[in-house]
Amino acid sequence: MTGRSAPAVLPPSLRVWLGPIAALAALVVVVLGVRYAGDSRPGTVDTRIWAAVDGTGSPWRHVALATDFLGEPVGAAALVVATVTGCLLLRRPRAAVLVVVGVSMTVGTATLLKSLVGRTIHGADNLSYPSGHTAFLTALALVVALLATGRLGLGRTAGASLVLAAALIAGAAMGWAQVALGAHYPTDVLGGWCTALAVIPATAWLVDRMADRLVDRMADAGRREPR
């Protein structure tokens, strides 16, 4: 028995599809980062989208604040703990590892990019690109969608549709909240969304590779033990 008999966290049916998507997302992150490096003003696209969501009423503002809370330390920690617990209950330890490692890598990448790009909003101390809140929720949604795809045995089309839909819904929800609250420019949100799309597939592939090698080594060591 080898590690390859264990459920992969990155379903084989999606590997060919997610690779180019991750590469394109990484390219978008870089292009936007270069475009808005050191900037402190909204671009043309930012201004137009801001105008469309400006004047959010009291009920919707409460929704935006509740959504924003999911990306704050307490809310994010609760979501991660709940997701990891669900993965372990479903006997998907690789998915549990991906939740922790993948989300941490995504948020860490977004934080590093903020320092490198240096785009600000509402003052020089508020680094804005890319949106860490959007990156976090999108990353978590991607992991859950990958888990569902593998567990349900979905094919390439159905699995890709589920993963893309999960990323779009999570990214749109958190992105709208960040723009409505004036916490980020719309292009910050796009950068955060693309950061998750670039990091999670690569991290999932790495988790599978490391898990396969670890279990193979354990199996080899067991075979070499004297009887």
Tell me about this structure:
- The radius of gyration is 19 Å and the shape is elongated.
- It is mainly alpha-helical.
- 76% of the residues lie in helices and 0% in strands.
- The protein has helices at 12-35, 44-53, 58-69, 73-89, 93-117, 132-152, 156-180, 186-224.
- The chain has a domain at 63-207.
- Helix 1 packs across helix 8, helix 4 packs antiparallel against helix 5 (93-117) and helix 6 packs antiparallel against helix 7.
What are the defining features of this structure?
mainly alpha; 76% helix; 0% strand; elongated; membrane; PAP2/HPO; transmembrane; hydrolase
Report the strand count. Answer: 0
Mean pLDDT: 90
The major β-sheet equals: none
The number of helices is 8
- Gyration radius over CA: 19 Å
What best-fitting shape do the alpha-carbon axes yield? elongated
**Ends distance:** 18 Å
Helix-strand topology string: HHHHHHHH
Task: Report the sheet-strand fraction.
Answer: under 5%
Unreliable segments of 5+ consecutive residues = none
Task: Please identify the structural class as seen in this structure.
Answer: mainly alpha
The helicity comes to over 70%
